[in-house]
Predict the 3D structure of the following.
Amino acid sequence: MSRNPSHPDPAASLWLLGACTALMLAYFTLPLRALGYQRPVLSWLVFTGALVGLSGLLLAKIMAVLAGRARRPVAWLAFLIFLAMTVFAASYYVIAARPGDFNGLHTRLDALYFTVVTLATVGYGDIVPAGQAPRLLVVLQIGYNFVFLASAAGTMSRTMRAGVESRAQRRS
């Protein structure tokens, strides 16, 4: 494994592509509606557990990168960001099953799209959280984006920049 992110790592790229493909296959095929408004306590417990676990993984990977101990830091951080998007998309899809809670969110693709639009802070307005639970979920995603995903993206950027600077210094 190349520890210098300025050099492409084909194994890390293939791993990232495979992991994200598997994640999307799971997202589009798992019976997510087994959760939802019929089982609100279980749904919130699963969501909370997923976020706590994901937060722990993100923090551990960020700390390992900053300490210089991380293997494939860019691939791992990119995957964890993608995983966070998938967790929120699945949660939106599950919560949208309750009539009147979301306007315009009907499919898994709608939920993934809404997650990306929220992450990018674009907010087209074509999908709108109407109920209290969806609004809470959006507030949680926005907070999560600010704290965890921004930290992960910043760490990825610093790692790649350090690799480029290191390569430039060796060439001088």
In short: The CA atoms of residues 99 and 105 lie 10 Å apart. Residues 1-6 have pLDDT under 50 and may be disordered. The longest helix spans residues 132-171.
